[in-house]
TrEMBL record:
<keyword id="KW-0418">Kinase</keyword>
<protein>
    <submittedName>
        <fullName>Fructosamine kinase family protein</fullName>
    </submittedName>
</protein>
<dbReference type="Pfam" id="PF03881">
    <property type="entry name" value="Fructosamin_kin"/>
</dbReference>
<dbReference type="InterPro" id="IPR011009">
    <property type="entry name" value="Kinase-like_dom_sf"/>
</dbReference>
<comment type="similarity">
    <text>Belongs to the fructosamine kinase family.</text>
</comment>
<dbReference type="InterPro" id="IPR016477">
    <property type="entry name" value="Fructo-/Ketosamine-3-kinase"/>
</dbReference>
<dbReference type="GO" id="GO:0016301">
    <property type="term" value="F:kinase activity"/>
</dbReference>
<keyword id="KW-0808">Transferase</keyword>
């Protein structure tokens, strides 16, 4: 209890706290309360606005999500913590039906009307996750992806020593093809923004939940490419997605372009082989 900020749990009638295994940047807890269990995470040195943005992303996804796909309700958000609805997570309840419902639900979120490419709300901090980014509204997705995501992250990765400087020349060669690499023009979609398998949770009934978003309005192939980066989403998921919101020809060839932002983020944060993965993606696109 002493590890939780007082303003995060005030008036929640917390009767017990259990530490959980969490991510690399936050501490996670199960809160026992008189009204049931809740989930809490704390980031004591959180960049300004990170948790506020996560809560806003959860609310946006909740508003757009169909019954096939759930998003936990944000109960409280502070500068250092977030309290969410509890999910009774299971590690063996999924199957073909669960995968199909995930794809169907995500497609419906992506089909929901979105106002522009860029941030959810101009009043929110300008960042995606822990990285500052210009999220001002735009109608030009290809330029947004190149100039506001890929180029700044690539410079940071090189400056951090985690990426071969030759990546700059490779990207310069690809830049004139940015519109082609981004694919046919489509309306903006509400994106999860960090949709790897660890941010899709399956509960004890086999129902899908989305957690830990870095949401903004963008091209739906941004989410789909992230889903393919580390595995964990089955063929039934993508087939069901395609039935609800048909994928555009060539989307799989565009995956390396759309995987550059998450690969660059991982190169900056973790180093290791991620820099090599960035170079491989750039070379694959030539």
């Amino acid at each position: 209890m002493d590890q939780l900020p007082e303003d995060l749990i005030a008036d929640l009638d917390v009767t017990g706290v259990q530490s959980l295994s969490g991510g690399d940047t936050a501490a996670a807890y199960r809160l026992d309360t008189s009204d049931g269990q809740l989930f809490a995470k704390t980031m004591l040195d959180a960049p300004a606005g990170v948790l506020e943005l996560e809560a806003a992303g959860l609310e946006a996804l909740r508003s757009a999500a169909p019954p096939e796909l759930s998003v936990p309700r944000a109960i409280r958000v502070t500068d250092q913590g977030l309290v969410l609805e509890w999910i009774d997570e299971s590690y063996g309840a999924g199957g073909a039906a669960t995968e199909a419902e995930c794809g169907c639900g995500l497609a419906q979120i992506h089909r929901a009307e979105a106002p522009h490419f860029g941030g959810l709300d101009p009043e929110l901090p300008q960042r995606i996750g822990s990285f500052p980014v210009d999220l001002s509204p735009t109608d030009n997705w290809a330029d947004f992806l190149l100039h506001r995501r890929i180029e700044p992250l690539l410079r940071t990765a090189i400056d951090s020593g985690h990426l071969d400087p030759a990546a700059s020349d490779l990207l310069a060669d690809l830049a004139p093809r940015a519109a082609e690499l981004a694919g046919p023009v489509e309306p903006p979609s509400l994106l999860h923004g960090d949709l790897w398998a660890g941010n899709r949770v399956v509960d004890s009934s086999g129902h899908n939940w989305l957690i830990d978003p870095s949401s903004f309005y963008g091209h739906r192939e941004y989410d789909l490419a992230m889903m393919l980066l580390f595995g964990g989403f089955g063929e039934d998921c993508f087939n069901a997605y395609d039935e609800v919101y048909p994928l555009v020809d060539g989307w799989q060839e565009r995956v390396p372009w759309y995987q550059l932002p998450p690969l660059l983020v991982h190169a900056i944060r973790f180093g290791g082989g991620y820099g090599n993965s960035v170079m491989s993606a750039l070379k694959q696109l030539r």
